[in-house]
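Question (not urgent): is this output format expected?
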Amino acid sequence: QVQLVESGGGLVQPGGSLRLSCVHSGYIGSLSAMGWYRQAPGKQRELVASITSIGSTNYAGSVKGRFAITRHNKALYLQMNSLKPEDTAEYYCNKGVYWGKGTLVTVSS
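Got this back:
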């Protein structure tokens, strides 16, 4: 059974940093892209960043220059720097049709 499990969320002050991790179990192939999405209360889920199997990355404009997505073996990471209150959301790991259950990031003083 395929599972994606996120970790690393938490409460951080504005300007701080967090590193999210996503580990997947089960075989879901290695050729498809993986991504991080987020959903803030009352808003639609949106793409934060994605990375292909050959390492090409794509970022939402609101996080470009502050976030970095990387992948290694069965893990996906999101380094988040210079966090802002508007980054507060549930963050989800995605690969194809598979989703994790999310990890909450709260940016507040």
